[in-house]
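_Full entry_
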Amino acid sequence: MRPGWFAAWWPAFAGGRPVVVTARRGDRLVGLMALHRRAGGLSAPTNAHTPGFDVLAEDATAAGAIAETVVGLPSRGLRLDYVSLEDRGVVAIEKAAAAKAHRVLRMTVRRSPYLAFAGGAEDVDRRLSAKVAGNLRRLERRLSAQGHTEIEVADGRDRREALLEEGFRLEASGWKAQRGTAIRSSETTRRFYAALAVWAAERGLLRLAFLRLDGRSVAFELALEDAHAYYFLKGGYDPVMRRFAPGKLLARAMVARAAAIGLGRFEFLGLAEPWKLEWAPEFHERTLLRVFPATTFGSLDRAAQTAYLRYARPLAKRTVAQLR
C-alpha cells in the first residue's frame, strides 16, 4: 500500500488518471483511496501481481468517510480485488453499501500463506515436519557436494540492473516461461517489476536473493523487506538442478534469515501451494468484493458477474491449463 507500488503499477497496467478520494482533518491527510475508471465502473488498482488492497485510513472515522464518498460516486459499480474482509476500510465500504441498499458480491480467490515469528533467532527447521526438515538437510548436503554454495542477498543499490536481469532469466526458466506467466513473458509485467525495483532500492526495501553454486545462480527470489516483514514477490530456479530443490533451499535460507534479523513475518504471498503450507499453516484470505447500485441494471450486472466468477472463469482457467 505504499505510493511507490502504485507509481510503478499505474503506468504498466492502468494508464489514464486515477480517481483519488481523500479525507482530511484541517490540513492533515487522514485517509486516502485510489481507484480507476473501468467500463463505466470504479476499480481498485489491482491485478494478479497485487498481494492485497485496502483503504488507507488513520482510524475508523476516516475509513468511514472515505467509504461513504466512494460508494456514493456515480458509477456502474465498485470492484475491489484482493481485499481482506477484516480490514476496517473494507468493513466501512460494506457498511456504506448496506446503508444505500446496494447489492454486494463476495468471493474468496486467494489464500496466501505466511509465517509469524515469536521473536528472536530460532531453529526454523522446527517449523517443518521431521520428514521435510530432514529431506531439506539431505538436499543441502547433496548440493554442497557439487561445489561451493552460498546465499547472496543484495539490496539493489549496486549492480541492480545486472542482478535483475540474472534473476528474471532464472525466474523465466522452466514451466513459467512455458505457461507465459514469467516476468519476462510480458513486457508490461517486466516494466512493472523493474520500476518497482528502482523505487524499492532507493528506499532500502528491495531484496534480491540468490542461491549460487560455484558462483552460478541456481535459485532466485525477488522480495520487499518492509514494516517488519519479508514479502516474497517472485522466484524461480534452474530446472537442470531440480533434483536438489534449490528453490526450497533458498526459501529455507531466507526464512532463517528473516527470523535471525528479527522480522515479525515471512509472507509467502500468492497461492497456498503445498510447499508453502509445509512452512506456514496460517494464511491471509483475499476476496473479490463487488458493489452494485440498487437498480435493475445493478441486479442484472450482479447476476452476470456471479455466474462468470463462479462458473465461466474457473472453466476457462482449466481449459487453458489443459491446452498448455
Observations:
- Confidence is low (pLDDT under 50) at residues 318-324.
- The chain has two domains: 3-109+287-323, 118-263.
- The CA atoms of residues 109 and 257 lie 30 Å apart.
